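Forwarding the complex inputs:
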Amino acid sequence: MIDISPELTTILMMGLILLGVLTGFPLAVPIGGVAVIFGFLLFGTGSIEMISGRVYSLVTNYTLLAVPAFIFMGGMLEHSGIAEKMYDALYLWLGGFRGGLAIITVLIGTIMAACVGVIAASITMLAMVALPAMIRRGYDKSLASGAVVAGGCLGILIPPSIMLVIYGPMAWISVGKLFMAAFFPGFTLSALYCTYIAVRAYLQPQIAPSIPPEERNVPFLKKTVLLITSMAPTAILIMAVLGVIFLGIAAPTEASATGAFVATLLAIVYRRFSFKVLKETALGTLKLTSMILLIGSCAFAFVGVFLSAGCGNVVEELILATPGGRWGAFAAVMFIVFLLGFFIDWIGILFIIVPIISPLAPALGFDPLWFAMMICVNLQMSFMTPPFAPGIFFLRGTASKELGVSMADIIRGVVPFIILVMIGLCLMAVFPQIILWLPNMMIK
Amino acid sequence: MMKTLVRIIDTVSEYTGQGALWLSVALVLVLTYETTSRYVFNAPTQWVYETSYMIGASMAVLGWSYTHRHHGHIRVDVFYTRFSLRGQAIIDVVISLLFLLPLLCVLIYGSYSSMQFAWGINERLPESSFRPPAGPIKTVILVGICLFALQCVAEFIRSLYMMTRKRKV
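Prediction (whole assembly, two chains):
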């Protein structure tokens, strides 16, 4: 047990983590390793019990059970083929507008976001359905891929969302409330994206041409029936999951499992269900959950050591000392999260940063729910900021090579959407009601 | 010899994962059962709360080795992918010794003593009146961590082999 000042400990622990993570070794290990080493240095063998106790309490956390259930649900939906059906229906309605296909992409991304809690499912579906359609119609490659990435990334923000399920227990905020708070921020972003696409398509018609009328010449009644039949099952699913949470009938964990069950039924109804699909979905769930919970337990152990060493106060003092009053301090927090998003995976940021900064919200006089949502919207950007951008990564992984979409195309396409998220953040700072209105309406 | 060892470990992890994946289906079914019986039939169960988190924890922890075997534990590969295979192997070896080894030792020792304690005093989970024994889940967690450690050994041998012989096992 050696005596190091909390200030030095803070710098060493954070610095070592950053260094360890950037080596490219599986993220969880440097985090857990730093926790173990500093736990031992500061508290001796007593730290062993604390660390393994925190690992135990994280993996047995009831709220976090919604993580596997939502992943399961997303996997099932991916196999059920609802994205194609929605795309075909919306195509007939909006194909005539300039930029219509890109707007459909964002809209389907938004609807999918309300069904799944991860971005992999949405982006994969959009990259397979929407991207080829846009590029074949002569859409600009960067606009098309930007719309896919931005639309798909809404999946992590609009509930149900894994990010919010993890945020809740880390910050002692109810996940149900976070879900409700995330709706309008998500829709705000979606609306900003659509507006941007419409304006750009209006100014530069050649990058997003409209579809010739003969290709979408379908009677009005048939169009309507197609729209309703493609949307109805999705709407039922959304109601089954989010409605019960909003009405206070079930907790998010229970709602998530019910949603997974209903999604399986949907796949059966659509005749896409098979033993193979079930096994693939379960295997995907296992891998993703294991990965998230390994990072989670290591980070939870790290935070335990970090806070016991008094480093939480150091961080708090440091941030409170930022010039510019409480908004200056807030901007500093947001900037740090944004910077970390360039290099570190969101799961790591979430599990490490949230418990450390959450006490700051009341100290700065901000509403904790508003503060949480600003962080989440900010983290949503980290999916799009290269070099470490899961959104771009998934698009690269699924987009067919024949489309000829290069990394430069994607990055050029994504940048405007990152700026739009920043505009969205400013809007939410000026009008906090965007975030707080719906949770206040929620049945307690 | 090393090749056989690596192959055996891989196989163990493979089977663990193939078995553990059904726990996710079980989790969905158990939680759906609870929700239905509580809200539709108004008959809440006694056992689902603990059972569900035991299933969830078992799934996550038993999945660690399988996920590691299939390189599913996310890496921040911004710089990592720019190194040669040998460079990557050197990083893996160094970080394994520096961070992974102490982490695994603490996790194994910690979860072992917690398990021993649980069986020794017949510890019960405290959350509800169901009060199931804490021993089984703590044993599963220990097993999961040990299997993960085993897969880490296999990956370590792979990296070491790549580092010294410059080819794959």
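The radius of gyration of chain A is 22 Å.
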